[in-house]
Amino acid sequence: MTRLFDTHVVVDWSARSRPSPARPSRDAIWWAALRDGVAEAPAYVQTRAAALDGLEALIRAERAAGRRVLIGFDFPFGYPEGVARRICGSDRGLDLIGWFADAVRDDRDNASNRFEVAARINGLYDGTGPFWGRPASWDHPAIPERKSDRHGTDHPPETRRADRMAGAKTVWQLAYAGSVGSQVIVGLPALHRLRAAFPGEVAIWPFDTGLSAGEAPVVLAEVYPSLLQPVAHAARRDDEVLDSAQVRVSAAALAGLDRDGALGPLFAGADGLTGGDREVVAREEAWILGLGHEAALRQAADRSTFIWPDKLPPEGRSPTARKPVMRPYDKDPSTIRARAEAAIRAEARLERFDPAMRRLAVGVIAACGMVEVADRLAFSPLAFDAGALALTRGAPVLCDCETVRAGIAAQALPAGNEVIVTLGDPRVPQIAAGIGNTRAAAAVELWADRMEGAVVAIGTSPTALFHLLDLLDQGAPRPALILGFPPGFAGAAESKAELASNPRGCDYMLLRGRRGGAAMAAAAVAALASGPAERET
Length: 537
Prior knowledge:
Largest sheet: 7 strands, mixed
Helix content: 25-40%
Low-confidence stretches: 315-326, 533-537
Number of domains: 3
Shape: globular
Structural class: alpha/beta
Strand content: 5-15%
Radius of gyration: 25 Å
């Protein structure tokens, strides 16, 4: 099995009602990240809002670099079977997450209405409950102080299937030692925010993916650091908060398994999870990543060779902006570019390219770090000139996702060219339902009035490329150039093969096979932006 993710992050979430202390403490928000196997000092963040800002920045940076990201959160992603339908009229976990996103108010100072939301849910059941656990001085009479104070005839199960297997606490306890109920209430909206911030790129496992890792560039998964608590205790440094050690150890275990090609089975659930249980878990209850694979997790954690920096970053700063603590490295942009280009030209097979296409190939290789992609680049004879001339004449660049647009330096485009992404258009969901296709494909429908003579850059979605070709078959206006760089294991290679075999009268460039990514598509646009008159000699 191959590696699934380039970046591995584990987050210890918090339901504190006020900012955590400035001095790192327990029961706050911690996360640890390993990027391409390089460990970073754990981040300590005082508020949920600052944590989400930092995680969004991390995702944006990782996607711009073409890396695939796994982020684990330490709270349940769902409730026991039947709860979703009682609360929101649907048995889909994603619908319940959306309901919480609408119902929960979570301010930037950590003040939230989580007890009001819990009381509202209690009102949907007979008697008092199922939520319980509130400080005696808090005025929420619909929520009992103790579990034994509850009464009613139709309460849901106390735990999910995963919680029973893991021996985890009930999702209904809102306060006191070991409670997770409040974390879930303020955590589900956080998942919704990250998924909504990157349409089509962030998936919530297993609701979006089924019991597999799926193909989304970013996957959010439920984790349970207590599965590795003995290892975390042993790995804990002097005066280190246990929460910090737990996220370090958990992230290292996941990255280690992935490095060895052994992470995939964890996404399939436990061996004993079969039949209807699998359906309920994948649709509604969710599952704990690694549950049922504890031995493999512990072995990976025990043999971890990742070296973690000691220094904590300033509160609220993204790991992407943290002060380096590793060996000296190049910092001058011109030196970095020169060294990278020299290495690529020495190692890659570039003989078949003319000078302009050679420069484009070097840019694509630099964007992904794999010299072998030079052998997989395919293009029509006039592709470079067609794309460069179109940009010189002011043609727009049509992108399938925000990540491609983010990678294009708009100021470097030769004619102030407009860079267009329609994936976030509010009409897209309805169009997708109407055509029976993905949102990425539906977004292509909105290109019709700008497609004639445009440069199309597809760096994420095979269905966007397939649908573009469908529209061309139906007589849609022809772009000047189609850049086909969608990655993945379902449709990526096939969509690019279809473009190469029948480009519908358009010039094209593409990367054959499963590899691709937004960074490579953006690098191709950057090479075209220099124009046909400035070719390398």
